[in-house]
User: What shape does this take?
Amino acid sequence: MARKDRTPNPPEGPQRHSTPGSGDADRQRRILYLSAAIGIAALAVVLAVVFLTGGDENERAAVESAGCTLESFPAVPNQPDHSDVPTLTTRPQWNSNPPTSGPHYGEWVVWDFYDEEVPLVKSVHNLEHGGVVIHYGPQVPQSEVEQLRAFYGDDPNGLLVAALPSNGDKITLSAWTAPDAETGTADRGRGWLARCTAFDEDAFSTFIEAHRYKGPERLLPEQLAPGS
Assistant: This one.
């Protein structure tokens, strides 16, 4: 029997070759885009943490190194016409003690250094205007009160200092910061409270520099002068 010839295999098709380096370039571009997106997201997280939990780290370091604590609270809403506090005996529901934001009386306390207590429902109005309120308790040594008085005298604009029985042996600094209302934002900002066991010039100066003139209803610095 004659042997059949084997059917030859069909010829192979042309080989496909990718352009050298094109896949690597695409991968590099994707990595760059991903890295950029991660970087932007990380920056947003950092900014949010700074705003919500501590403000400027230099401020926190200065305050805490002086033996003080620094706290921040979401601003308590209040009516823009101040009608939410009709009398000086009304006790609003604030979220810190002393208060750092929220409902207050229609008049503010005249900017000055006081040896007696002033109504909190009025001093919160001072905070809204961008001032810093300092309270000292009855157990704070008189020598420290005099240091505080001299400190106030060096730069009194936008500062209100008064006694506060509930402070005991502590000195507190209160502030209310927010975006300027003229920008049209509804953000009422945050309240800030430093609670100290003693007077410390560096810590107090750092707190004031960080928060003074930054209230939600801002007045010009000269409008916060003593006696006004």
The radius of gyration is 31 Å. The longest strand covers residues 171-177. The longest helix spans residues 22-53. The CA atoms of residues 20 and 26 lie 12 Å apart.
